[in-house]
Amino acid sequence: MRTFLRALAALIAVLLVPGVSAAVSVTSTFGAFHAPGPERAVPAAAPIQHDPAKPTAVVLVGELGAVISDVLVPYEILASTGRFNVYTVAARRVLLPLTGGLDLVPDLTFDDPLARTPDLVVVPALPDVGQPSTAPITDWLRVQSARGAQMLTVCNGAGVLASAGLLDGRRATAHWLRLNRFEANYPKVNWVRGARYVDDGTLVSTGGILSSVDGTLHMIERLAGPAVAANAAAAVRWRHYRAGPPVSSGLALPDVVAIFNGGYRWSPSTVGVLLTNGVGEIELASVFEPHSQSLAARTLALSTDGGPVRSRHGLTFVPRGDVAGAAPRLDRLLVPGSARIAPVPGAPAPEYVHDGGFAFDATLRDLARNIDVATARWTAKVLELPTNGLVLEGPAWPWGPTLLPFALILLGVAVVAVVRKRPFLAKR
């Protein structure tokens, strides 16, 4: 027994350092996803343009923010049609952090008249699903459901409706990484696996993140017709569109590369993202989302002067700094969209990743070149971005984060060996 206990103690000692290191790193990485920015003034409300002849679609944002692509991708697709009044809505008019650190000012609050009777409600993944902090949201959603509003849930936004009791007895899907938990927490829902979207009457739910493109286009087919949906797909350069029944999505499993990046990439690169007036909403999401999901880099929203920026279809974003002030912290400076800027003294040279195709395709290629191909493929899997026809070139594997835990284990073995050879060290 004594020999066994000694061996167990030695094993624990060897694994303690890499285990604790991974736990600290993962906590820090995921904690940064929805971290609020510094205190800043909320810009004055922009004039709301509303056409009463068009149906109104609102994209919900939670009190603690939301997943950036879940908000911005459906928003731009709907807005690009010209057939809808499209707004973002939240409980209060405050700065709301989207994943990756992009702070959004919502167009409407629940008390605004335009938010009381929307025709379509888009529900993204929220960081506090099922928590008491979502009570104002679930209360508002129950009201909208009772009055017959169409619902489009994106990714784990289905969990928000499920937590409100609005999916009981209905078919729905969500991100493949979360389905097991949802099945346990919300057993009255008929959860569907392997679908990019599920149509259940007044509810369309989508799978992981970019499955929202297919689900949003399907909703547009229902509300405005296939021709409008096809034009919307062309407007955002989504090459996978097809009208008709739901397409299937292959089931996936987590990759080991995520463990190495999340647990042992102790110094992720800092990527400045320059916000410019008129930038596309999907272009913004395509830079912030992949870097966050890759677990290999962190993004910092900037503008040239630190002031707010208006996107292509009228959303207001507030950066977390200006380029000159953030320059010493930056490893790269990416400029989404087609804007071009003069180099900023002391900052990395501006890089332009978008090439006119679907924005996420370009940023995945950039991720492969600047991080590695394995990380880019893992990121595409998390995003549910189809990679057929997408060529990814760059380093094959994240060797630094991969070798680090083994180095720590070897160091632990060496320390244990020294202690066992010199028992007097263990007595002190």
TrEMBL record:
Coiled-coil region(s): none
Domain DJ-1/PfpI as annotated: residue spans: 68-208
Residue intervals passing through the bilayer: 396-419
Pfam families in alphabetical order: DJ-1_PfpI
Signal peptide range: 1-22
SUPFAM superfamilies: Class I glutamine amidotransferase-like (SSF52317)
Gene3D superfamilies: 3.40.50.880
Keywords: Membrane, Signal, Transmembrane, Transmembrane helix
Domain of life: Bacteria
PANTHER family: ARAC-FAMILY TRANSCRIPTIONAL REGULATOR, HTH-TYPE TRANSCRIPTIONAL REGULATOR RV1931C
Name the UniProt record assigns to this protein: DJ-1/PfpI family protein
